[in-house]
């Protein structure tokens, strides 16, 4: 069996949002995966102030350094595309992130801390319209989600970071990728 032949996983929808951050996922493995995907697909990649608002809602109070680290990455990205380090996204410029596959592994016995690997593509739209000539394709990253105060929160607490695992590369035609837990994401809904 390969990820491409297996049935794609249907993600859960957020039940609410606050400051552009998706919330309201259940306390289970699919809830953690769905929360991570929703965050990654809805994150304000070009607006550092909006990213900070989202992160203040999504990041665990036990990992406050994560907010500044992520906002710094947004500012670096802005500078990399010729924008001032701080400010809103320019008119007509957007990023669209599509998570193609996920791999979730619990880092604790109770399932309250889960590491989610995401395989994704990111596309940009230009102010004058038209598509991205050079999208980011087949990118991967991981996010550690912690159940806290009735929500899945992002954390980079050292005791969990040291438990991270590293998967085989995602490939929809790979038997080892499926054996390692990679699941294709269904975007039909």
Q: Which key features would you list for this structure?
A:
single chain, 189 residues, alpha+beta, 6-stranded mixed beta sheet, two-stranded antiparallel ribbon, 26% helix
Question: Can you walk through the features of this model?
Answer:
With 189 residues, the chain is of the alpha+beta class. The protein contains five helices and eight strands, in the order βββαααββββααβ. The chain has helices spanning 29-42, 48-58, 65-80, 158-161, 175-179, and strands at residues 9-10, 16-18, 21-23, 94-106, 113-125, 136-148, 151-154, 183-186. The longest helix is centred in the middle third of the chain and has 16 residues, at 65-80. The two termini are 24 Å apart. The mean pLDDT is 92.
Roughly what percent helix? 25-40%
Mean pLDDT: 92
Our measurement of the CA-to-CA distance between the termini, rounded to an integer number of angstroms, reads 24 Å
Which band does the percent of strand residues land in?
25-35%
Q: Number of DSSP helices?
A: 5
Radius of gyration: 17 Å
* Oligomeric organization of the protein chains: single chain
Topology, pairings included?
Elements: E1 9-10, E2 16-18, E3 21-23, H1 29-42, H2 48-58, H3 65-80, E4 94-106, E5 113-125, E6 136-148, E7 151-154, H4 158-161, H5 175-179, E8 183-186
Helix pairs in contact: 2-3
Task: Please give a quick description of this structure.
The protein has 189 residues and is an alpha+beta fold. Helix content is 26%, strand content 29%. The strands form two sheets. The chain has a six-stranded mixed β-sheet with strand order 1-8-4-5-6-7, with helices on one face.
């Amino acid at each position: 069996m390969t990820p491409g032949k297996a049935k794609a996983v249907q993600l859960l929808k957020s039940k609410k949002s606050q400051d552009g951050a998706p919330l309201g996922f259940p306390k289970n493995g699919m809830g953690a995966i769905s929360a991570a995907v929703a965050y990654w697909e809805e994150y304000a990649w070009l607006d550092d102030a909006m990213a900070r608002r989202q992160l203040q809602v999504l990041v665990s109070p036990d990992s406050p350094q994560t907010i500044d680290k992520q906002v710094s990455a947004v500012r670096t990205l802005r500078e990399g595309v010729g924008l001032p380090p701080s400010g809103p996204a320019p008119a007509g410029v957007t990023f669209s992130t599509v998570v193609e596959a996920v791999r979730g592994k619990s880092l604790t016995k109770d399932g309250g801390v889960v590491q989610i690997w995401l395989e994704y593509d990111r596309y940009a739209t230009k102010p004058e319209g038209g598509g991205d000539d050079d999208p980011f394709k087949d990118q991967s990253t991981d996010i550690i989600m912690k159940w806290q105060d009735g929500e899945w929160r992002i954390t980079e607490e050292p005791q969990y970071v040291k438990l991270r695992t590293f998967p085989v590369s995602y490939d929809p035609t790979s038997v080892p990728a499926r054996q390692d837990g990679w699941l294709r994401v269904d975007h039909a809904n």
